[in-house]
Amino acid sequence: xxxxxxxxxxxxxxxxxxxxxxxxxxxxxxxxxxxxxxxxxxxxxxxxxxxxxxxxxxxxxxxxxxxxxxxxxxxxxxxxxxxxxxxxxxxxxxxxxxxxxxxxxxxxxxxxxxxxxxxxxxxxxxxxxxxxxxxxxxxxxxxxxxxxxxxxxxxxxxxxxxxxxxxxxxxxxxxxxxxxxxxxxxxxxxxxxxxxxxxxxxxxxxxxxxxxxxxxxxxxxxxxxxxxxxxxxxxxxxxxxxxxxxxxxxxxxxxxxxxxxxxxxxxxxxxxxxxxxxxxxxxxxxxxxxxxxxxxxxxxxxxxxxxxxxxxxxxxxxxxxxxxxxxxxxxxxxxxxxxxxxxxxxxx
Length: 348
Known about the structure:
Elements lengths: L2 E6 L4 H12 L4 E8 L7 E4 L2 E4 L1 E2 L10 E4 L3 H14 L2 E4 L30 E3 L3 H16 L2 E10 L6 H15 L31 H13 L5 E8 L6 E9 L5 H9 L4 E3 L11 H4 L5 E9 L5 E8 L3 H17 L3 E4 L2 E4 L2
């Protein structure tokens, strides 16, 4: 017996990707509903070989479904996710709205699957930030092998992390520059084509951005509150795929070969690390793939027990839609949620 699923934000980049991945992984779906804002009512989206018409968020009866995949932005999530959870279904929320709520588990299935038992507190599960997901997927097995003390991260985040408007801006600016047209920024604060912007989100009082703070706060919540992180988030002129340069300090020595062996055995991770001119993964290579890729594993000579490496993943897939669907799979596999014709129950 399958589940009744609603995808809220079904017309957006991540919402459409959620629909695609539900089909790709053959998640047991008995019913599927595409839900969006009133202005998108009737817009058609694909689910496998079927075409669905979007239903109005404000009119949809969420008591008729078991799982809601929510990707409609933080404002909508703050207004709706708790109300939807009280109506019965479990909400898997892709925004930042609920990530730091102590009663809402923040889950990457390869990292902290046991936290699924907390799902019924508010019937909300938070999907982490896209950059955090790929980071902790790589850090978890290393932390289990040799305790991590400190992490230094620089991200190289694609414009799709800013939604369709970000992708359109890169495309339009690139065309404008080649055609001597107008490349005035609209979505980003400065030109993104042929440029990099060391600013994502909004500034905090300490000089970091909220995007940077998300990465250390979420890592500490999921992995270990004692890990210290410092982060610089950078937007780059890439359409899909986030990259990260990561340096880790451990509490004991760990060699690059040991790290490679640990990561090769880790769920969700693929190691591509050859000392050759093309022996690493780039965002273009990772686009459309499920894995978190790790390359360039090497000793950091500036600290006693340090390693540096390169992490790449498709931010629309593992960084958002895939992780949300994997959480739904975890709900099913653990028996946290069960559905049978006409009713659903939660194992509490």
